[in-house]
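Hi X.,

You mentioned you wanted examples for the new student's onboarding notes, showing what a folding record looks like when two proteins sit in one file. Here is a clean example. The first protein comes first, with its sequence line followed by its C-alpha cells.
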Amino acid sequence: MLRVNHKSRQDHNALQLPCGRSNCRRYFKTQAGRTKHWNAAHPTIARAANAYRASVSEELEEHRLAPEQPEAQFDFQEVEYDGPNMTEHDGTRDSPAPRIDVEFWGPGDRLYRNFHKDLDARPCDENGTFLPPGSPPKPLSDKSPNDWTPYRNRVEFETAEFFFTENQTPAAQINRLLDLWASTLQKHDDKPPFADFRDLHKTIDKTPLGDVKWQSFSVRYNGERPDTDVPPWMDQDFDVWYRDPREVIRNMLANPDYVEEFDYRPYREFLTDSDERQWRDFMSGDWAWDQADIISEDPESHGSTFVPVVLGSDKTTVSVATGNNEYYPLYASIGNVRNNVRRAHRDAVSIIGFLAIPKTTKEHATGDVKFRKFRRQLFHCSLSKILETLRPGITKYEVTQFGDGHFRRVIYGLGPYIADYEEQVLLTCIVRGWCPRCLSSRINLDEQAGWRCRHHTDVLVEEGTLGELWDEYGIVGDLVPFTNDFPRADIHELIAPDILHQLIKGTFKDHLVEWIEKYLYQTHSKKEAQRIMDDIDRRIAAVPAFAGLRRFPQGRGFKQWTGDDSKALMKVYLSAIEGHVPVDIVRTFRAFLEFCYFVRRSVITETTLEKIQEALDRFHQYRQIFETIGVVSTFSLPRQHSLQHYVLLIRLFGAPNGLCSSITEAKHIKAVKEPWRRSSRYKALGQMLVTNQRLDKLAASHADFTQRKMLDGTCLSAAALAVEQMRTMNLEPGDVDTQGDTATHTVSGTEGKDDNDDAEVDDGPTNIEAHVELAKTPQRKRARTPTELAVELSIPQLPNLLRHFLFTQLNPNDPRDPSEVPLTCCPQYDGKISVFNSACSRFFAPSDPSGIGGMRREYIRACPIWRNEHPRYDCVFVNTNPDLDGMRVVRWFDTVGDSPNEDNGMWMVRPAP
C-alpha cells in the first residue's frame, strides 16, 4: 500500500498582523512582511534642525427659439428598465465680494480664505429649518453594527466584493470555486456563503444603497420625409439609457468618504504674508463665487450649499476587431469634491447615461444635411431630457443629507463640461475650426476678439441668416444648445480646459512633434532625415533611469501614443532634438513645456499666472520659425489656440488638472470597457447597465459598512478574535459568530501584497514634499571597510573624503571649507561599513498617477548586477544642502557654466574630474 506523507505541506496561516499605523488598512502574515511595509510606506523621517522644509502648496429661463423654429423632430417614449437594478468676465479682475467670512486655513496660518457669506452651507433638519450652531449631525444610518443586509455576514459581503468587483470572476468560475469551497466544509456540516453565481448576483441586486435604476426613452425622426427612397435612419428608433442624475448626485453628497475632501462654500484663497491669491480646487475659482452671488439675490437661498454639476461625455470604442463597437457614455461629478478625489476615481465621477449613436449608410452619412442636423439635435435633446430632474433644484433649494450626517439646503447649477474639441464643437453648436469660447475668425484664431455668450448668440440668431451665421461667426443657427433649457447656464462659459487633448496630445504630439519630422524631411535628403530621426530615437533610448522619468528603449518609434506616452516623452524630447533643429525650434519647445508644467500645478498663484502668460508669449514668438521655413502655413489651430484661454479658465475654475478629459477617459475603463468584456457580447449594453448598477451598490455598501466600522480588520482577524472571545468566555462553538460580523478589530486593515515595481501610487498623506530612505538590508557581497569600498568604486580618495565628512558632522560651526581642513585634524574611521543597492523615494507629484494625497513612491537602484544581466545605476538629483543628515557616495557631474542653457533652459553637466 502506498502511503502519502502530507507533513511537508504548509498549512494555511491564520495569523493576521495589523500594520498598527494610523489610518493604514494593511494586514500581514509575517513580522518581516509588516516590517518591510513599515519601511516602504511609513518611513521614520528625521529632519535636521535647520533643514530646508519645502511647502507643498508652493508648488429655466425660457427656451430660446431660432427665428426659423426647427420642426419638432422627436417623439419621446419613456421606458423604465425592469432588470436589476458666463456672467461676463474679463479674466483680469475678481468679481465684487460684498460679504465674506475670513478664516485662516491650513497649518501655520500661512493661508487665509474669504468664504462666501450668503451661501454658507448651514446645517438644517429634514424640513430645511436651520439648526443652532454646534448642533450634532444625525447619524447616517440607524442600523445596528451587526446589520449586513442584504448579506448575512461579513464573509458574504467580502466574497461578493472580491468576486464581482476586485477579481471580476466569470459565472462559471464562481460556481467552480464555490463547489471547491463546499467540498472543504462538508465534514463540518457547513456551506459556502452563496449557492451559485445567481445567488450572489441576486443578493447584490437586493442592496438598497446606491440603487439608482436605469431608465430609457426612444427617439424617432418625425420631420419632413421624401416621397421616395426614404433613408433608413428616418424609420429607426434610437434608444437612450440613463439614470436620474439628481439621485446620483444626492448619493455623492451623502458619501462619507468625501467628508475630509469636500468644499461646502465658494472661497478665495490668499497667502498670509503677501496677500497673493492662489487657485486650487474648483470652488476656489471665480465662476463658483459669481454663481453664488447670482443665487444669493434671492433671500430664500441664504444658508444653502451651491452644488455645481460637472458633466463629461466622449465616444469610446470597446472592440475594433469585432465590429468597431462604439458607446457614448455620459458622466457626472460635483464641483464640491476636491480635484485629487476626482482624479483618483473614488466614485466621485459616475456614469449617468449612454447616449444614442445614430448610424446610416455612407451615402446619407456624408451627404445628407438632414441626417447631420438630426444627429446634433438628438444629442442636445437627449442631454436636456436626462438632466430635467435637476431643473427645479437650480432655482429653488431642496434638502438632502451630506456625508458628515448633517442635512443642508442644496441649490444645483450646471457646471463645467469636460470634452475634447470635437465634442466642444457639438456642445456649443459652432462650425468646426472655430473657437468654442471666443469669436476669433477661423482664418486667424490668434486675433483679439470678444467672448461668445448665450445672449450674444441669441441676438445674432434673431438678426442674421443661417448663411451669415455660419460664415461670419461660425454658428450653426438652426441648433439650440441643451443649456438653454436651464437657468444660469451658458455653454460657451462652461467649456472646461483639457490638458490631455489640447496640450499633450494636441499641441505637443499632433503639432510640434509632427512639425519636427516634417522639417527634417523637408530640409534634408530622405536618407539624412532618417539618420537624424534614428539619432533622436537613440538619444531618447539613452536617457538614464531616474525617479519620475519613464524610459523608451526603442525611442519614439511605437505604433500608438497614449496620453501617458506623450506626457513621458515631453520630459526628454527637448534634449533629444538639440543640435538637429534651429535654435528657435528648441526655444519653441522650451516655452511650450514651461507653459505645460505651470498649468499642470495643483496650486497656481498670481505669480504663476504671470509666468504662464510669459511662457505663452515666448511660444507664440518662436513658433513663427515653422511658418518661416514653410513647415506650416497657418497657426489657426483650435487646440493650439485654446492655450490663450488658460489664464482666464484658471481664474474661473481653479487648477485645470481637476477638469481634464483624462479623468473621463480613465472612467471609460471601469464603466464601459470592463463591463463590455464581462458581457456575452450579445446585446451587451443591457448587461453593461446591470454591471454598473451592481458595482455602484457594492461601492455604496462598502462605504456604509466602513462608516459603521464594520470592516475594521480583515475577515480572518475578526474570526480569530471571535474564537478568542469564545475561549475566554468558555462558550460553545456557535455561541459566537466567527463569520466576522460580531467581533471587530480596533485597527483597520485589508490584506496587502508586496509590489516590486519601481514606481507606485502612495496612498499616504501629504506630509512631506520629498524624502529618500535607504533600503533596510545591506548587501553582503560588497566592501566592508572604507578602504575596500575605495578600491571597489575606483575612488582612491574616498577614505580622505570620509574623514572630511566626519569632521563637518562633528564640527558643524567650523567656518572653514572641509577641503581646507588638514587631514591630521580629521577623525579617521577604519571600521565596518554597509553598502546599500537601493533607496525608496517618496515625493509630492499630484500631476502624475498618485495617491489621493498626491504622493508617489519610486525606487532608486545602484546595482553592479541588475537581474543577472547588466549593471544599473540610476541618476538622481542631489540637493547639496549641508544641513541635511547622512553621507552618500555618488558619481558626481559638474554643471557647465553658471546658468541654464539660454535656448532650452536646461543645465548642461559633465562628469566631475
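Then the second protein repeats the pattern, sequence line and then C-alpha cells:
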Amino acid sequence: MATPISSFLGFLLLSTLVFLCSLKKLEGRETIESNQLYHSHTVKVISLLPSTICSPSTKDTDKRTSLTVVHKHGPCSQIKQDKAKAPTLDEILQEDQSRVNSIHSRMSKKLGFDDLRESEASTLPAKSGSTLGSGNYVVTVGLGTPKKDLTLIFDTGSDFTWTQCKPCAKSCYQQKESIFDPSQSSTYTNISCSSTSCSQLSSSTGNIPGCTSSSTCVYGIQYGDSSFSVGFFGKEKLTLTSNDVFNNFLFGCGQNNQGLFGGSAGLIGLGRDPLSLVQQTAAKYGRVFSYCLPLTSSSTGSLTFGKSARPSSAIKFTPFSKVTEGTSFYGLDTVGISVAGRKLSIAASVFSNSGTIIDSGTVITRLPPTAYSALKTAFRQAMKNYPLTTPLSLLDTCYDLTKYDTVTVPKIGFSLNGGVYVDLDASRALFASKVSQVCLAFAANSDDDSVAIFGNVQQRGLEVVYDLAGGKIGFGPPSCS
C-alpha cells in the first residue's frame, strides 16, 4: 500500500509531466506561428493597386548599357493611350491567354505533339507561322542617321525586330511617335532576296520570305492575337546609348502593320535566333542581357546588356532546360513550389512532363492543373481569414479587401534546378483590379502536358539575367525597386 508521501510525490511528478508537455505544445505552436510570420508578407492594401502617378526608380544602374523599361499602359510611358482607349484588365487577360495559346502551339510543333485541343487551336490565327501576342514592356532606342528615337516592345519570346516605316504602303496603326522614314536616313539599306540574311527570316518569323520585282527581301510576321507586320527587310544603324552604336543592324521596315501594340512603334526580339538583338550584338555583349521589370505599372525598370558589375554571389543561376532546345524560348527546370515555407506535395513528374519557360510577355504564370490545384488549395488555406469574391477572367482565387487596411499574404516560392529558390512576396503573387478584387496571379493550363510559363507578374522587381553563352539564367535580389 502506497504511503501518503509517495502518493504525493507521484502526483507531483504527474503534474510536472503534464506541465512540461503543455509547455512543449505551446512552444511548438509558437514556432509554427513564428514560421508562418517569417514566410508571409504584410502590406498595405492600397500598395497593391496601380497608381496614376509615375514614380521612377531611384536605384542606380551599374556601368553597363542600360535602357529604361516602362509598362506600355502605365503613367511612366510616353506612349500611353487615353484612358478611354486603354484596355481593361479583363481584355489584358484575354490577350494574355491568346499569347499562351500561341506559345503552346509553337512548343507542341517543336516537340512533335499534334494533339492540341480543338478549343485552343481554334483561337489561333490560321497562319502556321504565327508567333506571340505583343508584350507589356517598352524601351526607347535610336534608329537611323540622323537618329530617330522609337519606343519598342521588348519580348524574350520573339526573335525578330521591326518598326513601322513610311510610306506605309498598305497600312500603319496609330503610334504616338512619328513613323520612321528610311528615305530620310543616310544609313538605311534594303536586303536583297539572294542574301543569306534573307533566308534566315524563316526561322525568326515563322514564315518564308517574299521577294519584290526589284529583288528586295520581304518579311511577314503574325502574332497569336492576330496582330501582324509585313514589310521590307533592311539594315540600319541602331543606337542603344551614345556609346553603344551598331551599324548594319538587321530589322523589318513595316509597310503593312495592324494590331494591339499599344501605341508603340514596333517590337524588339530578345530570343535565341540568329536575327535577335541578343545574337546580333554578341561581339560586344557576349550574348548576355538582363532586366528588372518595374515593380508596378507606375514605376520604372531597366533592360541591360553585358555582364553585371554586381557581385556574382548576388545572382543565383539555373541551367537552361533541355525542353526548349531548338526553340527561341528560354526554359527552366521547376522542381517544386512552396507556400508559406512548406513545400507542396506535387510529384516531380508533373513539372518534368510539362517543362517550364520564362517569358517577359506573358502576364500571369501558368501551371499544370495538378500543380495549380495544390497551390490554390494551400494559398486559400493561408488566406482563410479574408473573404473570397468573384473571379477576374481566368483568375479564380480573388479576395474582397475593402474592409482591410493591410493584408498578410503567404510567400510563394519556386524551386529550380541547381538549388535556386525564387521567393515571391505579395507584389509578385497578386494581381489587383480594385480593392474589392485582389487575385492570386496564377492560372492552370488546360492539361498537365502543356508547357508551364513563368510570367512577368512573378518577375517584377527581380533582376533576371540571361546568359546565353553560359547556357543559364539567373535570379537576383530587386535591382530597380
